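Work through this protein:
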Amino acid sequence: MTPPPFQRALDTLQAILDGPQVRPELELEDMPAPQRLAPYSAAIAGSVYREDDSEVAMGRLIVLYDPEGRSGWTGEFRIVAYIRADLEPEIAADELIGSVAWSWLLEALEPAGYAGVSGTITRAVSESFGDKSDEPSTTELEVRASWSPTGEDLTGHVAAWCEVMCTTAGLPPAGTSALPDRKGRTVN
């Protein structure tokens, strides 16, 4: 039998998946959860797309539940998040991008309530050689984090993960519009 707190977490995830789209650029779906990390687990995946349907970010959010708690957890739940996003080379070259991305996560989690947060930010540059030498170099940002929610309602935690995934993809905050492209205009 599923413990009531975890059942509420499952119901929250299902309501988010079945509810209105969080943002038009973001697609969420159910995915299999790892079975060995905790007695109970659930997971969702997300992808962020540009107008041309190219994927610019993807992520996974795993909800772990152990009625006994675990060492390093501040409660019965632990959330594990992963985000990978394409970056412009000049942004990836900025030495502060890791600190900035970490601050995006903490700011997004603040309204939801969290404790025991930890994680890593990785910048990666991929260069192609040999038969692939025609392919351009790519730069990516990876966010790996985990935290314990301070309450049982996980809605704000999923929203924070979605927000950070969209932000790392270069989208403006929800409810705002990007400024028009000014290429080709002369400014006096």
